[in-house]
């Protein structure tokens, strides 16, 4: 019987600087364990090849994705390896998106996707990383040595499950949600992807996970790249993979894109405004009735766009006010309409006041309202400035 054969690009991105190569990381003992867990055999052969080597599984480059290819019994296993020591929250899994790109776009038959932990301990099990592992399992990764973790990893079962998990994680640490996923309609998923720095890896994985889950319920995804200044788009390889997944549209939203929307509409619903509101107060949630159904939650402007446009300000100044996270409240459709019509208002402390002449209307509003004061997460000097500008115009 032909022995399983490993094919591994030896040079990593910074090997010339660190003098550390894949052959230093993937020792015979590690490869023996990997081979045994996949094939049931411990006897194998291995080739560590140079950057110029390419075949159906490996492109001509350094080792992208911290990958090893294992060929056995007519099958091809793509194995991505963790770092030996967990680094920053994104660096710990930043190779995963690249590994998935290579695996997904490979045309070889009978392919498999695996992940192997080269280290263990609490730093490998932060809330962020456990969420990332769940995304990986949803994307199709199989963990070869999951016993190094203290608890089993389960995949996400739906986009709603993913949204809820991101909400819980963000509640513990807002920096865990550089990118966001939410719903606008039952079949329309929105991903707001921040692509600056290492966040591009988080954004790509979120897109891959959401796309995988959306296919289960025939949902469609719009992924908004939130670009800042001259910052880069999502890596091209990731964009290509999302395109091949078939249910994702990518929309790049730079400042000019949003400004054009602002100029053409009196009721701005720009991706940048939503992201700024998500950054400031968190996932969609009506603070008055506690509704958390994302399709029913909207970003309500405190100082309305139509009033902003009447001010003697430059376009840039008007736009900055219109997309400010301080100039918004997440409200359900009912409370948003009541707010737009000024039937409910907020005083300078954030307390809700009802301005309904009919007793039955007031009774109904009280019935659908559990809280009559905006929570402290909304309170800021700028928010109350916008609130005063609104109240002065009523």
Structural summary, described in words:
This protein has 394 residues and is of the alpha/beta class. Helices cover 38% and strands 19% of the residues. It is built from 15 helices and 14 strands. The protein has helices at residues 15-18, 22-25, 28-39, 94-105, 127-139, 159-172, 199-216, 236-245, 255-264, 271-281, 305-308, 315-323, 333-340, 359-367, 381-393, and strands at 5-9, 45-49, 67-72, 75-81, 111-116, 142-143, 180-185, 188-194, 220-226, 248-253, 297-301, 328-332, 344-346, 352-354. It has a six-stranded mixed beta sheet, sandwiched between helices. The longest helix is centred in the middle third of the chain and has 18 residues, at 199-216. The protein is elongated, with a radius of gyration of 25 Å. The mean pLDDT is 90.
Describe the protein's topology.
Layout (H helix, E strand, L loop, with lengths): L4 E5 L5 H4 L3 H4 L2 H12 L5 E5 L17 E6 L2 E7 L12 H12 L5 E6 L10 H13 L2 E2 L15 H14 L7 E6 L2 E7 L4 H18 L3 E7 L9 H10 L2 E6 L1 H10 L6 H11 L15 E5 L3 H4 L6 H9 L4 E5 H8 L3 E3 L5 E3 L4 H9 L13 H13 L1
Parallel strand pairs: 1-2, 4-5, 5-6, 8-9, 9-10
Antiparallel strand pairs: 1-3, 3-4, 7-8, 11-12, 13-14
Helix pairs in contact: 4-7, 4-8, 5-6, 5-7, 7-8
Task: Provide a concise account of the structure shown.
By secondary structure, this protein is α/β, with parallel strands linked by helices. It contains 15 helices and 14 strands.
